[in-house]
Amino acid sequence: MIQVQGLVKDFGRVRALDGLDLTVAPGEIHGFLGPNGAGKSTTIRALLGLLRTDGGSASVFGLDPWRDGVEIHRRLAYVPGDVSLWPNLSGGEVIDLLLRMRGIRPASTRRAELLERFELDPAKRSRTYSKGNRQKVALVAALADDAPLLILDEPTAGLDPLMEHVFRECLRERREGGTTILLSSHILSEVEAVCDRVTIIREGRAVERGTLAELRHLRRTKVRAEVAREPDGWPEIPGLHDLSVHDHVVSCTVEAEGMAPLLAELNRLGVVSLTSAPPSLEELFMEAYRSPGRAEGRTAPRP
Amino acid sequence: MTSLTGTPSLLGLALRRDRVLLPVWIGSIALLSAFTVRATIDLYDTQLALRMAARGVNESPALVAMYGPIPDETSLGAIAVFKLILMGGLFTGFLTALLVRRHTRVDEESGRAELLGGTVVGSRALLVAALAEAVLAALLVGLGVAVANDLAGLDTAGSLVFGAGWVGLGLVSAAIAAVAAQLTSSARSGAGIVAAALGAAFLLRSLGDVTVGWLSWLSPFGWVSKAEPYAGDRWWVLTVPLLVAAAGFGLAIVLRDHRDLGGGVFPARAGRPDGSRWMAGISGLWWRLGRLPLAIWSTGMVLFGALLGGVAPQVGDMLMSDRAREMFERLGGVGTLQDMFLSAETSIMAIVVTAYAYTVVTRAAAEEDEGRAELVLPTGTTRDAVFVATWAQAWLASAGVMLVFGLSASVSFGIQEGDLGGTLGRVLPAALVQLPALWLMTALALGVWAWRARLVHLVWVILVAGLVLGELGELLGLPQWMVDLAPYSHVPRLPVETMSWPPVLALLAVAVVVAGLAWLRYRSRDIG
């Protein structure tokens, strides 16, 4: 659905995208994660053909966004990160305007239902809307019809938790309907809750990509065990770190490859209790953000 | 904490933000004044030449309507500054209005005022700091110009009166901007109110000086010329702008006390819950956004046209010596005098309406700068559609406004003359022949927008350049090719001159080429 390879974009002397790779498969919800200023919005603008890129290639629906932008636009709906509306138009007017611009008759859409679910008053002028309400206007306009591709740039930034819940429901419904969704975010719980696959970018490059399971696979699991016998020495276990043995309690972190030998060893020592915790996405995220050097070259194999 | 707490630091912030704008603007005005004065002194080296020139001005209704009369035909200073009263007044007025607007309503709209309001800042501080900056700027302009004229060789007392006249104009303009900023909650409509007020002030002075004298006394521009710098040096006249400005400042503060931050005195009404069928594409949106300004401009033009047509029959009563009347009668009667007046007024209107067309282009650019193009373009709206819709709106709306002005002036003139057909034939073509020049100016603005939306404010530099080159170019001794750069100088002066198609068609062709180049550029650049 979306194929990006080695994309480069310079703004004057600043390199915003530095060889970015991104693949979004049809029918998936793809999380696009990164810290502020990592290049998420720039990538999205390039995918929409609003920016001319300086290197690499991008295609959406197999088309070139710069040349065939309009053809692509006809098949997608987009919610910008910072929604700015016309101050003297009402929310309802904006929604209908955006739908009609896409060639859709507002009456034929789920507009009314969505207004109710998002608890949005369409008669208010945009000037009086809060950030969250402006966001809702753009979301209703984007979700009201069945565009095969949704591109959402930090769409929940101003929503309250209840509305966030409604939003996630809508996304799940759309996925069941076969819609492909690219969701940029820096909110981890959101990505963890709805996304099938994730690409993490930092300083204009993809530093991690894969399914959540795959990303976890690469990471150490925390293990804490109580054993019957005090160990007198440890065998060489690959991928074992942070080992500490204290008064019958063993705690460590372990990479996937070392899990089986570790369990065998614990078993030998007579395990009494065992807790293990998968790394949260938060930890993955922190690691990818903080240490680009270490994270590089550790991308998961593509499915 | 009083309502003024924090004013000094806000003033400091404003000065810091305007650290480039203020010196450049003030310096340019002072230099423009000094060069004009110097050129005039070099031009009229004998008393006789001076008196002939002054007489020529005072007997031309076109020149008097544009710039005001010369109060003393023997005063070198009065002749040197007679064009500067308008130019400098506009520059000073725009500067102070811009400063007030920029540091009050624009900041409120962008949310910056809220950021500041959350700190230890009194409720009036933002407004008072903006006014203080405007007063300071006006004083600096006045001082700069007085010193410049003094150094250029004019007498000190007159230079001070002249500088003080500009200060007065700057203060009045700041007061208008401050009140406008309280009335509406949108910075754009506030700017519209200021532009309309300055336009009305200019027209009242223009009409008053040529026809019914007391009208000039209603106009801030009139007050500067009534102070008669380098002639009567009537200081007392300048108490009028001072009092008016003080009243305006007071009114703005009272209005500020009665409204919320971000709100207007006129409350925002509820909108319609669904969109109109007509607003289905970029053109529909553009006209929907532009309909209120268009209605206001059209109404204004109907009024101005009616006023102009209404006083046209009296042109000359004020001006003419018997000798001049004889001369005009030999040339073709009083009708010629009226024609000169009409021709001058319509060419001024062309510049005023150019400013309106520029607001259409700057709005399209603001749409992009404020992030709404990002909402519109991904709906399948092409860049071609956005460009063409903007182009069409800028040209058609300005043409419509000129047409309304021409019709209204013709009708009101014709009713008094009892010859509607005749006046339609005289006035309407004079208004419409301006369009190609106006469109070329607009095409240049489209070019700036297409080049880079963020720099769209440069269009105002183009407008000022067109005005200065066309109006002051010859006096400043600029080479003819520079004067010719101003599109307005190529328009046949109907109904005084006869229609000449080649320059009009050439202007139109250049306008289309410039707009076409702008189109190509807009297709191929980054958006946002």
Quick overview of this protein structure:
The complex is a heterodimer of chains A (303) and B (528). Chain A is an alpha/beta fold.
Describe the structure.
The complex is a heterodimer of chains A (303) and B (528). Helices cover 32% and strands 29% of the residues of chain A. Chain A has helices at residues 40-47, 69-73, 91-101, 111-117, 131-143, 161-176, 188-194, 212-217, 259-268, 281-290, 292-295; strands at 2-11, 14-24, 29-33, 55-60, 76-79, 149-153, 180-185, 197-202, 205-211, 221-227, 240-246, 249-254, 271-277. In chain A, helix 6 links the parallel strand 6 and strand 7. In chain A, helix 3 runs parallel beside helix 5. In chain A, the strands form three sheets. Chain A has a six-stranded mixed beta sheet with strand order 5-6-7-3-8-9, with helices on both faces. With 528 residues, chain B is mainly alpha-helical. Chain B is 73% helix and 0% strand. In chain B, helix 14 packs parallel to helix 18. The two termini of chain B are 42 Å apart. The chains are: A alpha/beta (303), B mainly alpha (528). The A-B interface holds A 45, 48, 50-52, 69-70, 73-74, 76-78, 80, 82-98, 100-103, 106, 122-125, 127-128, 138, 151 and B 109, 185-186, 268-276, 279-282, 284-285, 288-289, 370-382, 524-528.
